[in-house]
């Protein structure tokens, strides 16, 4: 497994694996990239770890060094880490994305489609994962409950979308991943439950109102529209006012769509934006 020039071998072992710091993560002696075969799981790869606080304890394995390093950058890490500064994250993440592209190109060939790297689906999955890690670090719970059929939903979203039925199935799969929000745990952390209606998005909205009163409203706006589409778009309600409003919220003006895949990409992009804005909010 190759290492970049910026990797610095600490000379120490962790669970039988080599540990590295990186010259691009200054002023932090607690964030590490770990390389090797995990002595318990026997999985080979790169891991991201923050030993000081345990917020990122053995995240991985990742196939490449830069993928693991990206986890340390995209998540908050420990309090001493310089990458808590949002402007440094914003500057460094594009660099890491380019490095990951280069690694895939060297593995699969120069002509490998760049869309494989940061496709709308991959962006959504990565952002959701990073948000879960950071949410647990700050509030003690996973925002999204992990379920065994998450992988099935991911496969469904990756399939081509050629007609209205495919579009509806993808909306159902995507909404299912959002509706994994742990409503019961969120409610335990809400002080004022007066008038709170059932539903994961309602619980998240009340939680944000109490903890981040100035939060970007698009966070809830996009996610609520997604769940509206799930319940009403297929097969008989595609032209109802609720569906039209929800589609317009995703910048989709006409239905049925001329390009179903493009419509799914728009929805994925805006849902990823909602999750990223929430991630940024809780990292402050």
Detailed description of the structure:
The protein has two domains: 1-118, no CATH class; 119-284, no CATH class. It has helices at residues 65-74, 86-108, 120-139, 150-158, 164-178, 183-188, 200-211, 218-232, 241-249, 260-283, and strands at 7-14, 17-22, 31-37, 44-50, 56-62. A five-stranded antiparallel β-sheet has the order 1-2-3-4-5, with helices on one face. Helices cover 50% and strands 12% of the residues. The protein starts with 6 loop residues before the first strand and ends with a helix.
What key attributes describe this structure?
284 residues, alpha+beta, 2 domains, 5-stranded antiparallel sheet, 10 helices, 12% strand
User: What is the C-alpha radius of gyration, as a whole number of Å?
Assistant: 20 Å
Number of strands: 5
Shape type: globular
Structural class: alpha+beta
Strand-and-helix sequence, N→C?
EEEEEHHHHHHHHHH
Distance between the termini: 35 Å
| Helix content percent band | 40-55%
DSSP helix count? 10
- How large a portion of the residues is in β-strands, by DSSP E? 5-15%
What number of domains? 2
Largest sheet geometry: 5 strands, antiparallel
Could you report the average pLDDT, rounded to the nearest whole number?
79
- Uncertain stretches: 108-118
Order the strands across the largest sheet as they lie in space.
Answer: 1-2-3-4-5
């Amino acid at each position: 497994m190759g290492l970049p020039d910026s990797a610095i071998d600490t000379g120490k072992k962790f669970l039988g694996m080599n540990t590295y710091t990186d010259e691009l993560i200054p002023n932090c002696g607690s964030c590490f990239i770990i390389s090797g075969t995990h002595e318990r799981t026997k999985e080979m790869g790169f891991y991201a770890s923050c030993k000081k606080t345990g917020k990122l304890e053995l995240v991985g394995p990742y196939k490449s060094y830069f993928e693991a390093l990206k986890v340390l950058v995209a998540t908050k890490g420990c309090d001493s880490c310089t990458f808590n500064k949002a402007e440094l994250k914003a500057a460094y993440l594009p660099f890491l994305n380019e490095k990951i592209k280069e690694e895939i190109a060297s593995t699969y060939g120069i002509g490998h489609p760049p869309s494989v790297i940061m496709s709308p689906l991959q962006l959504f999955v990565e952002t959701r994962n990073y948000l879960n890690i950071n949410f647990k670090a700050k509030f003690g719970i996973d925002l999204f409950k992990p379920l065994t059929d998450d992988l099935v939903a991911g496969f469904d979203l990756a399939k081509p979308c050629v007609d209205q039925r495919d579009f509806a199935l993808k909306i159902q799969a995507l909404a299912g991943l959002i509706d994994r929000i742990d409503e019961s745990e969120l409610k335990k952390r809400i002080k004022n439950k007066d008038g709170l209606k059932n539903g994961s998005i309602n619980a998240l909205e009340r939680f944000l109102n109490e903890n981040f009163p100035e939060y970007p409203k698009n966070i809830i706006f996009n996610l609520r529209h997604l769940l509206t589409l799930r319940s009403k778009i297929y097969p008989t309600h595609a032209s109802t006012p609720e569906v039209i409003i929800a589609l317009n919220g995703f910048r989709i003006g006409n239905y049925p769509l001329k390009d179903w895949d493009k419509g799914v990409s728009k929805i994925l992009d805006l849902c990823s934006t909602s999750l990223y804005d929430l991630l940024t909010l809780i990292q402050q």
